[in-house]
Design brief:
Layout lengths: L4 H30 L3 H5 L10 H20 L13 H15 L4 H5 L5 E5 L5 E5 H26 L6 H5 L9
Antiparallel strand pairs: 1-2
Length: 175
């Protein structure tokens, strides 16, 4: 079986978003146990010129849904970006996972050579062939924002480790 565009994207998005959902569960438990307002975590950032945690999660979900949608040639759903609690962020992640189930893998597979136009900030657009868009833009950005969200939680004392970031990957142990 060849390695298709859909196999390169959808499982990565699903695994990363499922891991993010679990990270949010641990963040919620951390806040509840220590009586910390969710806003403290949501507005935390690693450095002043980086997005806060809430925006890292929003961007991670946007990269998955918008990237898959553009590759499939369909209009993605829009989010209001108004989450103020960890529970609301978890709902957003779960909605994105459900949305990804509706994407036709064959449409993603057909995008390899198609030109994809996408925003590069508020006043600019980029254009790449589908395979380059996925490999050089969507996946690196998806993992970057996912990793920064993880790092913000870890920096704030949430007890998480590498396995939490990796999620429920399927491995066959070697004896």
């Amino acid at each position: 079986m060849s390695y298709s565009m859909s196999r390169a994207s959808l499982p990565a998005f699903n695994l990363g978003l499922a891991a993010l959902s679990s990270l949010l569960d641990k963040a919620a438990a951390f806040c509840a146990a220590r009586k910390i307002d969710d806003a403290v975590i949501l507005q935390s950032r690693l450095t002043p010129d980086m997005f806060a945690f809430v925006r890292q999660v929003q961007t991670t979900t946007d990269l998955a849904k918008n990237g898959a949608s553009r590759l499939a040639g369909v209009e993605p759903p829009r989010h209001a970006d108004d989450e103020t609690t960890i529970a609301q962020l978890k709902t957003r992640v779960d909605a994105t996972l459900r949305y990804l189930e509706t994407i036709d893998p064959a449409k993603i597979d057909a995008s390899e050579e198609r030109e994809i136009v996408f925003p590069l900030g508020p006043n600019a657009e980029g254009s790449m062939k589908g395979d380059d868009y996925l490999a050089q833009f969507v996946l690196p950005n998806f993992y970057f924002h996912l990793a920064v969200a993880y790092a913000i939680l870890r920096h704030n004392g949430v007890e998480i480790g590498k396995r939490d970031f990796l999620g429920a990957i399927s491995m066959t142990p070697v004896a």
